[in-house]
């Protein structure tokens, strides 16, 4: 248990903790609900489902963290990677819990998790709608990367230099 309570907007008390594998299906659903805020159609979201599906392997080969308000899951973050480069794999906030600071809280956790994995840089293959959020968090643009979901679609890649003094 690694509780870290933060009182944030709209009277939400967000507590960070490691989720349990039994929560995989609920977390997958959260990712899909969250992704939908950018207005994607049902076919695109269905195509994204495999990439957004959590399985038991995620608990073995990555670091996961959820933001909770009581029993309610408000957001999910996932960091993976070995060596000097870590990847922010997932950062998804429950739609009605956006814009109150939970994204920042989980992003800061990602920075700490990447450092604990020994990385000196954390990369982010961002949804185009989220790129400006990552820039606000201090990430810088680092080209584009081909989407693993839709051939011919390219996503902004950003990176965070972990020695740059960001706190976590
Ligand atoms: C992108 C996302 C993670 C941001 O989370 P959030 O909880 O709404 O963000 P926060 O409330 O912590 O915002 C922190 C700061 O970023 C800014 N910000 C948030 N979203 C932003 C956006 N889309 N564009 C520009 N700035 C943004 C906020 O204004 C705030 O700025 P401040 O420091 O001046 O107050 C969230 O909108 C989300 O889950 N989106 C859908 C799923 C998604 O695309 N995830 C990313 C996958 S790569």
Give the structure's gist in a few sentences.
The protein has 168 residues and is an alpha+beta fold. It has helices at residues 24-35, 42-52, 56-61, 102-116, 131-136; strands at 5-8, 12-17, 62-69, 72-80, 85-93, 121-125, 140-146, 154-161.
What Rg, in angstroms, do the CA atoms define? 15 Å
User: How much beta, percentage-wise?
Assistant: 25-35%
- Report the strand count: 8
CATH topology: Aminopeptidase
Q: Briefly, what CATH class?
A: Alpha Beta
Could you describe the largest sheet, including whether it forms a barrel? Answer: 8 strands, mixed
CATH superfamily: Gcn5-related N-acetyltransferase (GNAT)
Total of DSSP H or I helical runs spanning 4+ residues:
5
The second-level CATH architecture is 3-Layer(aba) Sandwich
Walk across the major sheet and give the strand order: 1-2-3-4-5-6-8-7
Low-confidence stretches: 164-168
General form: globular
Q: What is the structural class?
A: alpha+beta
Give the rounded overall mean pLDDT: 93
Distinct small molecules bound, one entry per kind: coenzyme A
Compute the number of structural domains.
Answer: 1
Distance between the termini: 17 Å
**Helix fraction?**
25-40%
N-to-C order of helices and strands: EEHHHEEEHEHEE
What is this structure's SSE topology?
Elements: E1 5-8, E2 12-17, H1 24-35, H2 42-52, H3 56-61, E3 62-69, E4 72-80, E5 85-93, H4 102-116, E6 121-125, H5 131-136, E7 140-146, E8 154-161
Parallel strand pairs: 5-6
Antiparallel strand pairs: 1-2, 2-3, 3-4, 4-5, 6-8, 7-8
Helix pairs in contact: 1-2
The chain binds coenzyme A (COA).
The site of coenzyme A has 20 residues, from helix 1, strand 5, helix 4 and helix 5.
């Amino acid at each position: 248990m690694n509780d870290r309570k933060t009182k944030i907007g709209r009277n939400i008390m967000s507590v960070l903790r490691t989720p349990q594998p039994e929560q995989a299906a609920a977390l997958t659903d959260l990712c899909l609900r969250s992704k939908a805020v950018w207005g994607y159609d049902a076919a695109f979201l269905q195509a994204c489902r495999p990439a957004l599906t959590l399985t038991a392997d995620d608990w073995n080969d990555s670091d996961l963290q959820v933001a909770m308000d009581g029993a309610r899951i408000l957001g999910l973050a996932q960091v993976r990677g070995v060596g000097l480069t870590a990847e922010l794999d997932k950062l998804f906030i429950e739609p009605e819990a956006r814009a109150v600071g939970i994204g920042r809280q989980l992003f800061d956790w990602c920075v700490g998790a990447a450092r604990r994995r020994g990385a000196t840089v954390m990369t982010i293959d961002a949804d185009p709608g989220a790129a400006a959020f990552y820039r606000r968090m201090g990430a810088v643009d680092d080209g584009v990367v081909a989407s693993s979901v839709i051939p011919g679609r390219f996503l902004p890649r950003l990176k965070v230099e972990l020695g740059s003094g960001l706190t976590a």
